[in-house]
Amino acid sequence: MSDMQWTVLCTTAEVLPGERHVAWLGDTPVLVVNHDGDFYALEDRCSHEDFELSPGPYDADAGTIECVLHGARFDVRTGEPLCPPAYSAVQTFPVMVQDGLIYVSDPR
Predict the structure, then answer these.
(1) Is residue 62 assigned to a domain?
(2) Containing structural domain, residue 55
(3) Which of 30, 33, 86, 93 has an alpha carbon 20 to 30 Å from 20's alpha carbon atom?
(4) How many domains does the chain have?
């Protein structure tokens, strides 16, 4: 592992291709998404209205998740907003997979 501080969030078996899983990094809810076999982690909070993203529809083809509250969509790979009413990115976390475990690091 690198010099970064890494925390185990879940196992790869908990997040099969096209699926997602919510875990906690301290007091921060983190949404882990398996998009085409790659794992991405973003804060489980819409940047528009501080509402959880995890209940929203995930489009596995586009790699996006939509907030159910007002319809803002985000790229799960970058956290970037793709449409109004969100204009700010969602916090993302570096991901490392080792021995079937999904680790994240907190860059904040």
Answers:
(1) yes
(2) 7-100
(3) 86
(4) 1
